[in-house]
Structures are given as C-alpha cells and as structure tokens.
C-alpha cells in the first residue's frame, strides 16, 4: 500500500479549508491556518472518506500540522482491516 505523501495531504487540507497552498508548510500549525478542534474533526472525516480508513476521533488532538496528519493517516492505513470481496 502506497503511503500518502505530505504534498497530497497538504492539497487535501488546502482544498478542504480553501487555503492558499503557499501559506501551508508541513510544519505550519493547523491552528495558525484557522483550523480549530471542529476543523480537525472535519479533516478526520475528509481523510476517512478519501483514504477509506477509520481514524479514532481521539486522534484529532494529534493533528497539529501537516506532517502530524500524515503520521496519523499512515497509522490508520497500517491498521486498516483487509479488503473484502464486496469492496
């Protein structure tokens, strides 16, 4: 399974929150981008749909910047149950 890149996640964050990609670096705190706790929940939901994973809501506090989002997403993908024939 290919790991999502920081650039790919950055694009998702920018698209989801209508941000200028030039203002978003991998280590820019999400709060500086105007993404609060509710925004992090929205981001979790977006990532779950886009990557077809389940991310525990408790993980939202770990979403501090793009690099941290990539780590949480990678862990969720690593823990994803096997695909079924109906998928």
From TrEMBL:
<dbReference type="InterPro" id="IPR009081">
    <property type="entry name" value="PP-bd_ACP"/>
</dbReference>
<dbReference type="InterPro" id="IPR036736">
    <property type="entry name" value="ACP-like_sf"/>
</dbReference>
<feature type="domain" description="Carrier">
    <location>
        <begin position="1"/>
        <end position="77"/>
    </location>
</feature>
<protein>
    <submittedName>
        <fullName>Acyl carrier protein</fullName>
    </submittedName>
</protein>
<dbReference type="Pfam" id="PF00550">
    <property type="entry name" value="PP-binding"/>
</dbReference>
């Amino acid at each position: 399974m290919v790991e999502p890149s920081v650039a790919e996640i950055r694009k998702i964050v920018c698209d989801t929150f209508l941000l200028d990609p030039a203002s978003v670096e991998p280590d820019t705190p999400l709060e500086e981008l105007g993404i609060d706790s509710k925004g992090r929940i929205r981001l979790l939901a977006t990532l779950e749909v886009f990557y077809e994973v389940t991310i525990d809501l408790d993980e939202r506090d770990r979403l501090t910047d793009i690099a941290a989002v990539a780590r949480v997403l990678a862990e969720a993908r690593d823990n994803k149950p096997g695909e079924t024939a109906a998928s």
